[in-house]
Design a protein that fits this description.
This protein is of the alpha+beta class. It folds into three domains: 81 residues, Arc Repressor Mutant, subunit A; 106 residues, D-Maltodextrin-Binding Protein, domain 2 (3-Layer(aba) Sandwich); 101 residues, D-Maltodextrin-Binding Protein, domain 2 (3-Layer(aba) Sandwich). The protein is built from ten helices and 14 strands. A hairpin with a 5-residue loop joins strand 9 and strand 10.
């Protein structure tokens, strides 16, 4: 097994090339030349005895070995890069903080994130991506992701921030037509606006452990779209309660199943830094944890 302790520059060049997509883009990030990046990666390949990239004039593609190596090395380099936080603990956070969060939580979290958190740490550059898709933190170079529910990547560190209540809502016209369900069977028989992620319809989960795949003719991949569809009367929607507080207060959506117990979904902050978490990520998680407690009470 080769000793890679002296190949940190090559591993850095390799990881940045994967994340940036080309030697040229990686060289720009590393303030060097594409030739220097290519040579560093070539030396690394020779050291470990395998090809990491398939090179052509038009494309640069990871090999299977390259993918495995990237998934092992990238978190280690991130942790090494963050290790100086231990000796800079008295200084404020700086650098880039790249965040992914679901789009429907943005109206609830972004005002305080920009209005309070960002103003408290003026040396921090915020890069916020809004998507319901489960991003690959390492491959897509995110520092932290906020997600409700169970994370799909088991190799990530998950900090549980809050438990958010769920609700099944529907428009007044829908309730007038279908009534309030009295049992699980009644609820499962109703038409739903369904949440579909990656083309797969997500199930409705009840507090007693019952799980069913809802029926319906409208599938959406965001909570915002589900809310609009439910308001139109097309179907019921299974959502986080905090997302529809305004609609419930205004009466444009109603609690369809107040007599059926629903579970709470964990809101977690996911990262791939291992035990050495950068100060900027720790402070962000602390801040969101305080905001999430407010969402849990809505």
């Amino acid at each position: 097994m080769p000793n890679l302790l002296d190949e940190t520059p090559g591993m850095t060049a390799f990881v940045r090339t994967v994340e940036a997509g080309s030697f040229t883009a990686a060289a720009r990030d590393l303030s060097t030349t594409p030739s220097a990046v290519s040579k560093s990666v070539a030396r690394l390949e020779k050291k470990i005895g395998t090809r990491l990239f398939l090179r052509s004039t038009r494309a640069l593609t990871l090999t299977q070995d390259g993918q495995v190596f990237f998934e092992r090395v990238a978190p280690l380099l991130r942790e090494l890069d963050a290790s100086d936080d231990a000796i800079r603990s008295q200084a404020g956070p700086s650098g880039r903080l790249r965040i992914s969060m679901p789009g429907e939580l943005a109206p609830l979290l972004l005002p305080q994130l920009f209005g309070t958190f960002a103003k408290s740490y003026p040396d921090l550059q915020l890069d916020v991506g809004l998507t319901d898709r489960f991003v690959n933190l390492v491959r897509e170079d995110y520092d932290v992701a906020l997600r409700a529910g169970k994370p799909l990547q088991e190799d990530l560190i998950v900090r549980r921030l809050a438990d958010l209540p769920t609700i099944v809502v529907a428009s007044p016209a829908f309730v007038e037509t279908w009534g309030h369900p009295k049992s699980t069977e009644d609820l499962a028989g109703l038409p739903f606006v369904r949440y579909a992620m990656g083309g797969t319809v997500q199930p409705v989960r009840l507090a007693d452990g019952t799980v069913f795949t809802p029926k319906g003719r409208v599938d959406c991949d965001t909570g915002i779209a589900m809310i609009h569809a439910a308001r139109s009367g097309i179907g019921a929607a299974y959502l986080l309660r905090c997302l529809v507080t305004a609609e419930l207060q205004a009466g444009t959506l109603l609690d369809l199943a107040p007599d059926i117990a629903l579970p709470k979904l964990p809101l977690g902050a996911l990262h791939a830094f291992g035990r050495t978490v950068p100060m900027r990520v720790r402070l962000f998680c602390d801040f969101i944890a305080s905001e999430a407690k407010i969402l849990a009470d809505l």
